[in-house]
Structures are given as C-alpha cells and as structure tokens.
Write a structure and sequence with these properties.
The protein is 14% helix and 50% strand. 30% of the residues are buried.
Length: 216
C-alpha cells in the first residue's frame, strides 16, 4: 500500500467526523452575529427624555439602529434542539461627538442595555428581544476620545446577550444554511454623566471581534 493511500485512509474518518464532533461538544461558534467585527463602528445617539435630574449626574437614553451582515458557520451539522444562543460584542474604544459647544464629561457610564435583533436569510427570519449584561465605562483620554472598559458581563470588554427562549432552532438554520445572513439591530442603554450629554450627542464605538455560540 502506498504512503499516500495509507494517509488518505487514516484521515478520512477524522475529516468526516468533524461536524459530528462539534455537535457532540454542544457548542457551535458563529462569527459576527451582530454584523460588527474588529475595527468597525457602532453609533449610539442620545435623545430620550432624561431618566433623572435634580442636581445628580444626568441619565438619558441612547439608541443604536443598523443593519449588518455575516456569513454562515462552516459547521456541517444537523441541529434539532438549541438550548440557548450567547452573543458577545466587544468594544475597543469610543468617540463622543456633541451637537453644540457643551462640555465633554470626563467619565460616562452606560448600563441597562437592551438588544432587539432580527436574523434573516433567503429562507427564514426570527427576532429576539433580550437584555445585555455589562456596564460600559468611558474615560476621556484626549480630545473627544474615550477609553472603554466593560464590567459585570463575565467577558473582558464585551457586552453579553443570552437568548434562551423563542425559535432558536430557526435561528440555528439561518446561521448554518442559506448563505449570507442579515441582522437588524436596535440597541438601547441608559447613559449617565456629569455634565449630562445633550440630545443629539453621538457615542461612536469602535467594536472588537463579535462572536456567538449556539449551545445544543
């Protein structure tokens, strides 16, 4: 038997079992499920009625709305029962753009994140509304640039959203079949600072690697 044929026979069952092995581990990785990868931007606009006042640091709401795309995972598996979907969206830095001559605060705190996402491809569509864990703290460095830290999410510099109900099996079909996927995202958060941010302020995040995990 030639060496080439011997290697082919040895590797064939290993290659054929890659998808099955991934399924048996119970975790299927998804790249950029919110359509934002390293070095891209996500803009949140301040503009809701203040949540608090009376001399305290002012809290308002900020909202981001956008449409992104991402590719199917390469896993060749059959999915029949998904327990949950975990999304991790990393944030690297931020710029804060004021609509007028207001003073930039040294520190901005963002929390109470809520995520609404609709995933679709050419065959199906499914929507989820969940909270996102993590308190984002912006610390001014130079000009209108801010360093970003994320606390309380369990992942470094990452907002974490966990979907545990709804049509998760349809989501699994969308992200593993049918080609390029579309995601429509609305993200809201409470924004607290002193001085407060005026309506129309844009908080422009530079995102890090976005990841997702289907847990079977």
């Amino acid at each position: 038997m030639s060496r080439r044929l011997w290697l082919a026979l040895l590797l064939a069952p290993l290659l054929a079992g890659c998808g099955a092995g991934l399924k048996e581990e119970g975790r299927v990785p998804i790249s950029n499920p919110l359509g934002r990868s390293a070095g891209e931007s996500m803009e949140m606009v301040v503009g809701a009625v203040p949540v608090s006042r009376n001399g305290e640091p002012l809290t308002k709401q900020a909202t981001a709305s956008y449409t992104g795309t991402f590719s199917d995972t390469d896993a060749d598996i059959t999915i029949s029962n998904v327990r949950r979907f975990i999304i991790c969206q990393r944030i690297q830095s931020a710029q804060v753009v004021l609509p007028d001559g207001s003073t930039l605060p040294d520190t901005i705190t963002m929390d109470g994140f809520s995520l609404s996402a609709t995933f679709s491809d050419s065959f199906a569509q499914v929507s989820f509304n969940v909270s996102a864990a993590g308190q984002v703290i912006l610390t001014r460095t130079t000009g209108n640039n801010y360093a970003v830290t994320v606390q309380g999410s369990g992942e470094d510099d990452c907002l974490v959203a966990t979907v545990e109900s709804g049509n998760l099996n349809t989501l699994a079909q969308i992200v593993t079949q049918g080609g390029t996927n579309t995601v429509d995202v609305t993200l809201t958060a409470n924004v607290t600072s002193n001085p407060g941010l005026p309506d129309g302020t844009r908080i422009i995040f530079t995102t890090g690697l976005g990841t997702g995990t289907l847990e079977l």
